[in-house]
Amino acid sequence: MGAFRRCPSCEDAAITRCARCEAPLCRRHQPTSHKRCRSCERDYQDDALTRNRMKAVLGLPPAALATAAVFALLFPFASGLAGAIAVAAAAAIAGSSTAATVFRAVDRSARAQFLREHGLPLPAARVVRLLPRS
User: Fold this and answer.
1) Does some domain include residue 8?
2) Regarding beta strands 16-17 and 24-25, do their DSSP bridges make them parallel or antiparallel, or are they unpaired?
3) Which of 30, 66, 72, 121 is most buried, by CB atoms within 10 Å?
4) SS3 assignment, position 23
5) How many domains does the chain have?
């Protein structure tokens, strides 16, 4: 986790807890909606390099495939320089929009997964006494 030192009132006059790490937070450090404490948000930002690599792995092949498919489909209909430019532009738009869609999906799912994480994944263990057999 990131090295964020909370103020003394976070420990003494805590009004809430971070939904992810369960750290006590005062009113001044209370996160807004769809956010977590500064430490957790810093952890999310530290994972940006991994997300960017995932975007490249997952987004570029479909973008290349979309570009090639649009180019192959429209090339027979291109006549002259204007047709070739139109086909190239349509292929570029198809590839760019495909990559942008995949990039947005990766960001959205990574953020949703981060927000679902919480500090206590399992309930606290407790001792259960067995009843004697009759």
Assistant:
1) no
2) antiparallel
3) 66
4) coil
5) 1
